[in-house]
Amino acid sequence: MELLDRGYTLITPTHRLSRYLQHQYAVRHIRAGRKTWPTPAVLPWNGWLQKTWEEHALEQGLDQVLLGAHQQQLLWREIISRSAQGKRLLQSTTTARQAMYAWSLCRQWQIPIFAENLYLNEDAIAFRHWAGAYRQRCEKNGWIDDASLAGAIAGMSVRPAGRKNLAFAGFDELIPCQKAVIAALKAAGASVLELPLLPRTAKTTVLGMHDSCGEILAAARWARALLESDPDRSIGIVVHNLQAFHTDVQTIFDDVFFPGAILAGADEPQRPYSIALGLPLSHYPVMEAALLILGLEREPVPLEEFGALLRSPFIGKAVAEGQQRAQLDAWLRRHGESRINFTTLHKLIKAGVLPERVIPEGFTGCWLKYQELFRAHDKKQSAGNWAKLFANLLQIFNWPGDRPLNSTEFQTVAEWQEQLRRFAALDLVAPSLSGREALSLLRQLLMQASFQPETPELPIQILGMTGAAAMQFDHLWILGLHEEAWPGKADPNPFIPLQVQRELGMPGATPELKLAQAQNLLERLVRSSPDVVLSYPQHDNDRELRVSPLLKPWPVTMDPCPRDTPGNYAQLIYQSRSMEEIIDTLAPAVPGGQVVSGGTGLFKDQAACPFRAFARHRLFAEGLESKDIGLDARDRGSLVHEVMEKFWRRLGGSQALLDMPEEQLEKVIHDTVHAALQVFRKKFPQTFTERFTHLEMERLRALVYQLLDRERGRRPFTVHACEHWHRLTFNDITISTRIDRIDQLADGRYVIMDYKTGDPKINHWFSDRPDEPQLPLYAITSAGEIAAIVFTRLKKDVVGYIGLAQEDDLLPGVKTLADLRNNGGISDWETLFAKWRETLNRLAINFRQGSAVVDPKSNKSCEQCDLHNLCRIHEKQATSNKPLAIRDENESF
């Protein structure tokens, strides 16, 4: 710190260390009672290089442009893509990043690319070609990159004035380009000091923890205890491979320091720790919303992305239209396709298909303006023009929303503005771009832009291994030091000849160099604090891990028991509960005569689980669906129903089927299927492409032919009704339902049919809780005499009838009660109907009286239910630590 007072400029290897030294300098002046002091000249190495070069370029009037990282990468990608080697690559963007890093290493280590007598593999030959092209482009256009700054400064005629007092602090070992710069500065008369790291006597403890989460949890509790005993302590937590454990670290530290934050309504905690690792800018919620808005140009939009945008708080009128937007998302998930575009949505609104209550007019109006603006400018243009258009498109949706932004969101938006400026600066190296090319390039830049919101200097610093360089703490814990991770494997650069890397001793080039690098880094970290804890996990899932051999100088203390898992605050609350148990399984009774929604599904749900029936038909609760490509099972079933309804309304019965010539029948089937497909093509225009429509035509025609083969073997019948809506009152519950088909036989009796595209079964009809009660319900409420009730199975190669008939040979393959082995002891039609009346009457009474107990009939009942978050049955299972006692689906209740 005395050097700063004497006018020295301190140069550090990392930005993190620069900020740390600036903070220490401010603390020193505050403790001395000063209110103002000069800003200390503390710069990271890269920042000092750039500042020095800019000053020199200004003094000398140099006409050179310093390329930013985005511009360099785009230039590398263009050169690689146009090369012969690049045409064989699948990921030119990834290769461009690796080649750019190899170029930087060559500049830092002053490696010529490459000597003629040096053996080169295929990768090195390609890199030499790319590097030559890159150098020529830079020289031709007067460009320079940050990797070349050290060499340029070392070759400058550097005047000592203004930069004669320099100190290099925290550098463990200087690389060749740094040595060259220092030599040039000294030759020009500058005073250059190299400040060694002052070692501190350390008490070192090695701990073997159960696993990585237990290791992080122990470190968090250790840090909290130290901070509570002395708030002025400086505490370092160094995590090997911090990027992989970032989420776990933040979650566990939040749980230890702010356990109450999990409670509803809790304020954002003011953390006493910071994680010195940025996340990609695109991962922050406010930026995810921005990218979703810009992605609306890519029509059609995946339904998941569109739904996320509808629910986003970062667009205008998010609160005012929040309910409508959520309902629109749910409606599209149930009735729409896997992708949505504006044209389809507009047609749904205009045709009145979308209920008015789910139409967010503000959102749809913004989308319309978006489409008009984008289409007016959808042409190849410069990155700068695209940047302006992207900003205007976001403004249409009033991004980032109406509510005030918190600190993190505000800084994220500010960083977005900076990244958009850098994107516009690509005009220097980029050709004209199409809309999709521009947005794809912007997404890549945002994914590569590491961003960490600024926070005050905090007592607990969580860093990666290299980020802790030259930092000093009162207490230090280093995590993750097991043998597979530390020292790790050698990782030589694939584009630089291995022989060169070995001769220069580049870190990671060989196992020996990797070991030496890890050993030096660990020793430096251990010397940085008087109290050091080194730890490693003993297990990774089912694999056992051993301590790193680099920890052998210190004795190991083993943790005998697994640590509590994170999130245990909720468990502590639950375990310390003082609860009064209230059994509340009854809802208010349904008033007599009230129409209840759900049709026969009400009885099906009541039989499966009383709570499901209460939630669906009294609370109108339903889970969000997810759409997949093509038609789901429900839509396929509806399509089959549409075909069968049109076909039998046209023929009317078995006699017309038998009398119709084969050619005419083929035409009727074709016309019927075609008409049904046209109906569905209007509902699902993106799904029903020409190829998909042709496949569905062939599938449906085959099903119809297979069914007609069975229908010809039946007794004569007339189709009495198709898709017939029926309103009935059963035990004071009025419901409306639709019967798929009713056939009338020659003797006046009726056959009730229900189309199924799955695998229906009838054994549950004899249970007190039937899985499919609709046919029994139709049967006992019909006016005429019922001869048979059947499922008509319409599944490829297994078309036929499954059900019950009064006598043999009434329908092909349909059995009578006497033919069934498990008929519940019921031998005649009247007794069966009486049992159904009793069973359905009991279900109706239970529902009408408000029975809402969580009592699933079987595991299958829960597997097919979407209301788990409401009934919380799995939470009950988790807290009881034993499986739920669910009865077998065939057991009688």
Average pLDDT across residues? 86
Number of strands: 24
User: Roughly how many Å apart are the termini?
Assistant: 82 Å
Shape: elongated
In CATH, the architecture of the largest domain is Alpha-Beta Complex
Q: From the helix content, strand content and strand pairing, which structural class follows?
A: alpha/beta
| Most strands sheet | 7 strands, parallel
CATH C-level category of the largest domain: Alpha Beta
Short description:
The protein has about 900 residues and is an alpha/beta fold.
Give structural notes:
By secondary structure, this protein is an alpha/beta fold. It folds into 5 domains: 2-62 and 153-195, no CATH class; 68-144, Arc Repressor Mutant, subunit A (Orthogonal Bundle), CATH 1.10.10; 203-278 and 460-558, Rossmann fold, CATH 3.40.50.300; 280-451, PCRA, domain 4 (Orthogonal Bundle); 586-625 and 694-893, Lambda Exonuclease, Chain A (Alpha-Beta Complex). Helix content is 45%, strand content 13%. The protein is built from 32 helices and 24 strands. Strand 1 (9-12), helix 2 (15-31) and strand 2 form a beta-alpha-beta unit. Helix 16 (383-396) runs antiparallel to helix 17. Residues 562-567 and 881-893 have low confidence and may be disordered.
